[in-house]
Each structure stands twice: as structure tokens, then as C-alpha cells.
Amino acid sequence: MIGIVLILVSLSCQLTSPQAPSQPTLPPLETPTQVVEAPPTPTEDTSATQAAEQAERATQQAEQAIKEAAAATEAANAAEAAAATQEADAFMKQTAEVEAQATAQAQGMADAVQSLVQQGVLNSSSGTYYWMEDFTQSWAQIGWYQWWSTGLAPTNFVIRAHTEWESGSRTANWYESGCGFVFREEDEDNHYMIFLALDGNVYLKGYVDGKYREFGKGYYGKVDFAKGSADVMLAVEGDNITYFVNGEKVLQRKNNELKSGDLALTLMSGTNKDFGTRCRMSDIEIWDLTSQ
């Protein structure tokens, strides 16, 4: 019994005797797991590619626009060239027609001048032909006349025209009303003036050294004084002055007081009423004999 007790006591002592403090027990460390990040999947940078594609598209569009513009320009140039060609053709045709008409007119005047040579009115038919645009003027101052220069100053010449007249009064001074020509005009004080008056006479007048002169007249016949027309022609060579009305020689005089000067168209008024006297001249032709 004693032995068992001792054994129990011994065991009890072992069980109850204080033990050395134990070290804190740490939880077992987990073996660190290395996380290996997978390398990023390469991502293609498309910005440069897109820019290149856009640039290519822009280039193609620009090239297309250039082609279209070139085509439009070519078409416009073709149309413009065609229009210019048509215009040039029309102009050439018109020019040819005008030249043909002028040639015919010049030939008609040349024939008239040659006829004057055959009649002994002129010594030569050699000269230069001129044609003038139609002329229309009116003047209302009784006893006065005005003139408008042709721009030519031939010493020897032939001029002819179809003249139409109208009076603003039925009681005008008919001997002072009419249409005609001023020639060898140096100024207001030195010039000749010749016209068919509405009393049926052709008058040759003028000024020499500032003095009014009457050089003669010739009777043609009755004319329509209020409104009428006639073809007139004046031939001047040297001191010979000859006037025709409707192909009839009406007045022929010699005078050499004035040697040279301008050639002009004139009208005599004969009345102060309304527009006075109106003259219209057409088919005005001049044959300059001065250069012969």
C-alpha cells in the first residue's frame, strides 16, 4: 500500500509540479506562394494605322477631286472655246458681210465719180473712199445755220447723201430752211456753205474774211417744204463747185477765194418755232480727191 501510495504521490507530484513557462506557440507559417504575373498580352497600337488609313483616304479623295476639277475645267474650256469659236465665226461672217457691203458702196461711189469725169465735172477719179454714220440734227433759230464736222478736210472731193428734212412751222422762211454742206471751212469767218432750200433753190453762200457773201443759186424745182427728202451730191475740184439734186445738175460756180479747210454737214433753221428745222442724212459717202 505504501508503495502504491508513493507511486501515486510521485505521479501526483509530477502532475501538479509547476512546469517551465512554455514558449508562445505561433501558428505555423504558410509557405508564401509566389504570384507570378503573366506578362501582358501585347496590344497592337492602331492609332498610327488608322491615321495612315485616313491619310490614304484623304489622298484618294483629293486625287478624285483634282480629277473631277480637271474634267470640269476641261469641259468648261471646251465649252468656252466652242463659244469663242462660234463668236469668232459670227464676227468673221459679219465682218465679211460689212466688207462686202462697203465694197459694193465704194464701187457705187467710184462709178458715180467716174461719171462726173465723163461729164467734165472732174478731171480725175483717183481718190480715197470714206463712209459716215447717219446724221440727225435740228436747229431752231431763224436766219442762222450750224454745221458739224465730218473729221475730214479734203480740198478736192465728192460728197453725197440721202437727206430728209422736216420743219416745225408751216410758215417758215423756206429760203432759209434746208440741209447741205459746209466746206473749205477755216473758221466762222472763212467758209463756203451750200444747201437745198425748201423753196426749191440751191444756195451757195459763205464768209470770206468775216464778210457774208452770196455766190449764186440755182433752181431745182418744187419740193415738199414741210417734210420731204432728196438725194444730193457736191463735187469740188480746184475752183469748180457743182451741186446735184436727185442726179440733176442744179448749180455750178467757180470760186477760188478759199483754198482749203474742213468738210462738214449743215442745216439752215428758217424758224424759231418748236424744233425749227430737222435734217437727217444717211448713206453719207465721201470720195477724197486731194491725194491724186
N/C terminus separation:
193 Å
Shape: elongated
- CATH-defined architecture of one domain: Sandwich
Note the run of SSEs as H and E: HHEEEEEEEEEEEEE
The largest sheet, given as strand count, sense and whether it forms a barrel, is:
7 strands, antiparallel
Task: Count every helix, treating DSSP H or I runs of 4 or more residues as helices.
Answer: 2
- Which structural class matches the secondary elements? alpha+beta
Average pLDDT across residues? 84
The helix content is 25-40%
Strand content: 35-45%
The CATH first-level class of one domain comes to Mainly Beta
Supply the CATH superfamily name of one domain. Exo-inulinase, domain 1
Q: How large, in whole angstroms, is the Cα Rg?
A: 59 Å
Total DSSP E strands: 13
Q: What is the name of the CATH topology of one domain?
A: Jelly Rolls
**Low-confidence sequence ranges:** 1-27
